[in-house]
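During the reporting period the student researcher (J.K.) took over the structure-prediction task from the postdoctoral fellow and processed the backlog of single-chain submissions. One of the processed entries is reproduced below for the supervisory committee.
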Amino acid sequence: MIHRKSVSVVTRLPASSKLFVLDTNVLMHDPTSLFRFEEHDLFIPMATLEELDNNKKGVSEVSRNARQASRYLDELISKASSDITQGIALETHGDKSAAGRLFLQTEAINGELPARLPSGKTDNQIIGVVKHLQEMHPKREVILVSKDINMRIKARALGFAAEDYFNDKVLEDTDLLYSGRRELPGDFWDKHGKDMESWQQSGQTFYRVRGPLCASLCVNEFVYLENDKPFYAQVKEVSGKTAVLQTLRDFTHQRHNVWGVTARNREQNFALNILMNPDIDFITLLGQAGTGKTLLTLAAGLMQTLEHKTFSEIIMTRVTVPVGEDIGFLPGTEEEKMNPWMGALEDNLDVLNKTDDEAGEWGRAATRDLIRSRIKVKSLNFMRGRTFINKFLIIDEAQNLTPKQMKTLITRAGPGTKVVCLGNIAQIDTPYLSEGSSGLTYVVDRMKGWAHSGHVTLARGERSRLADYAGEAL
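J.K. obtained the following structure tokens:
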């Protein structure tokens, strides 16, 4: 464990500086976690290095992260002076926010644990290290950091401090997640209507308003007032206490239908306004089951691909995480293998095809074939290195992606491509991902306020009264 010489070094550091003992799963979850503890010190037990070594083989995300963590450690050690027992300054990596030091276990530790805990188990060895460090440095706060809930429970039961690794979480509470819409206060016009300017351009009305609320608005956020004269608008510009609002197109009216689909509620109207807006390249739609995410997106995609010819084709992809037991290997080509996962696509195409009543059976069959020829189903596994030009890219079930996978997908977009991410953060099927650390939560938070991105959280289910009631009651 820590060499005798290093004891005084660690103890002399300010009492406010903590000593964090890292579990392997933290490094395998986020290799950069080494540089995320600010002024505090890190301690890596030998058992953690052993587990990193055991998990380095393979092409999975976990294996890649294990290899990257090992590279970071190698880089730090190679830059350190000969005596690593004194601790290695983390800022030698070039990250000035990490002002602490990294300590590696350099001698055997016999942290006596209760006889009921088998000493051969790696988790218990790490807890033994925490116990030993706490005895060696009684004036310092020694904390175990682990993504393993049971290990944290075990450590706390034995009287040691244990925490989850929080740095990967975009938000602590997903209720704070940007919804893309905001109800204006009833006295909005009284406080913001003074010296208001308004003008018309391309059939849209614009208002330049000034007031205290303007500073908190986001570009492309939807604002509304529900009263005798309902007001729906989108924020186009924000500078200080001035904002420019643009009125919306009314997609609830049949004359503005999108591939036969009209908006059934306020949020769906907001969603169609951004889906049909050529200036918006990146869209995220969140919502419970049955709120119309996929239907609205496909309708907008078909309209802009087949009618307006803005895009050459629609590409649809989704994360293949089974809800129940896996059904084994699937035969066929990439497209055929993806078909069982694309039930949502088929269901929505059936609805969109029925909107054309005048065409008759033959006309509908011809339309169906035309639509199918313009929709390509792709697997996520083969996306790296591709570039999509003039495509309408739909990423379904995006809540199951990690932030890194999300970045890989969105950076595939070439000129003229629109990317739409759909998902419900209450239905995450990927192990190790939570609502706070999902890639979908990450992009909603990071992309808000950019002039070419839009987001709406759909609120009301429109599938059926049974689905709505089940969503609430079950």
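The committee noted the following: Residues 217 and 324 are 42 Å apart (CA to CA).
J.K. will present the remaining backlog at the next meeting.
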